[in-house]
Amino acid sequence: MEIRIGIRDNGRDIGFETELGAKEIAEQVKSGLAAGVLELTDSKGRSYLVPAGSVAYIEIGAEETRRVGFLA
User: Fold this and answer.
1) Strand (E) or helix (H) holding 13
2) 7 and 13 Cβ atoms separated by less than 8 Å
3) Where are the domains of the chain?
4) CA distance readout (Å), 58 to 14, 23, 36
5) Ramachandran sector of residue 32 (left: φ over 0; alpha: ψ -120 to 50; beta: rest)
6) Which tens digit of pLDDT belongs to each residue from 22-69?
7) Is the dihedral angle over the CA atoms 13, 56, 27, 41 positive or is it negative?
């Protein structure tokens, strides 16, 4: 699952891949924003801590498998 976190007053965003599903990520985001600090972990075990006040948006990618082969 691909995650993108937009930061206020910053032209770049934070993007990473995680093994969690969309519902699990949404629950972590809701509880993190309520607590004041958003904490997410990527598929390599790195943690991302973002203050809730500086989050502009959070984009949770679609759960789909990658296609293999050529498209006509």
Assistant:
1) strand 13-17
2) yes
3) 2-60
4) 9, 14, 15
5) alpha
6) 999 999 999 999 999 999 999 999 999 999 999 999 999 876 666 666
7) positive
